[in-house]
Amino acid sequence: MQTDIFKELFPLFDAASAETLDWLLSEAVERDYPAGRAVLMEDAWGNAVYFILSGWLKVRFLRSQDATTLAVLGKGDFFGEMAILDESPRSTDVVAFTSVRVLSVPAQKFIQFLFRDPQLHHRMLQLMVRRLRKTNQRTQLRQQVPAVRIAAVLMGLANTYGNKNEAGIDIFNLPIQDIADLSEVSPDDTNKVMEKLKDKGWLVIDPKRQVLSIVNEKQMEQLAVFR
Fewer CB near the last or first residue (10 Å), C or N of the chain? Predict the structure, then answer.
């Protein structure tokens, strides 16, 4: 992959020199995974950092036979870097929602990459702060009514990974159970809220294309505001 394309997909690294990025990309490997395939197993955290070139994935918390969706990731995001830095065991895995393509960088090569360019340390700190802020926002979200929680989850995904067009913002059509996990609302209540949003004309779902379109962005943004 060319460095300019990589920087466009992953702006966090646009401060890295072309030489440093060329070295990193020379150590990276592109892999394709079909929908439903585990991209990262729970016992493999800390081995590499994964950059999402296309597709949608979910991070799941595993407990016995149960799995709870903790996060949904899309094109332009990456994961695995925290496990490299803290080396703590994980009870999570990452599974492909759709067919995905990722670029993986071995753990030691990624650490060397960070040390090659001092500015990258600052960028990584910024990333950690942003992710901590998201965690705090999710905690605050638990105090909101179900409709606000669900709207906040959908708008968060739309603002981060959505494909904006004249009709609205398109994201992957998440299953009800995954929306319920992310919003911490029961599946039954999640289904009721989703039906109401569709009846209002704020959402349009195309099952064949696996696309959820937010067609009334203004109203959804207003609903998603914490009160």
Answer: C
Using DSSP, state whether 224 is helix, strand or coil: helix
Condensed to tens digits (0 to 9), the pLDDT of residues 68-80 reads 999 999 999 999 8
What's the topology of domain 3-139?
Answer: Jelly Rolls (2.60.120)
Domain ranges of the chain: 3-139, 142-224
Per-residue pLDDT of 189-216, as tens digits, reads 999 999 999 999 999 999 999 999 999 9
CATH number of 142-224: 1.10.10.10
Contact 105, 13 (CB under 8 A): no
Q: Is 58 exposed, middle or buried (0-12, 13-18, 19+ CB in 10 A)?
A: buried
Amino acid occupying residue 125: L
Say what the pTM is: 0.90
Whether residue 72 contacts residue 181, with contact meaning beta carbons closer than 8 Å, is answered with: no
How far is the C-alpha of 48 from the C-alpha of 161, rounded, in Å?
23
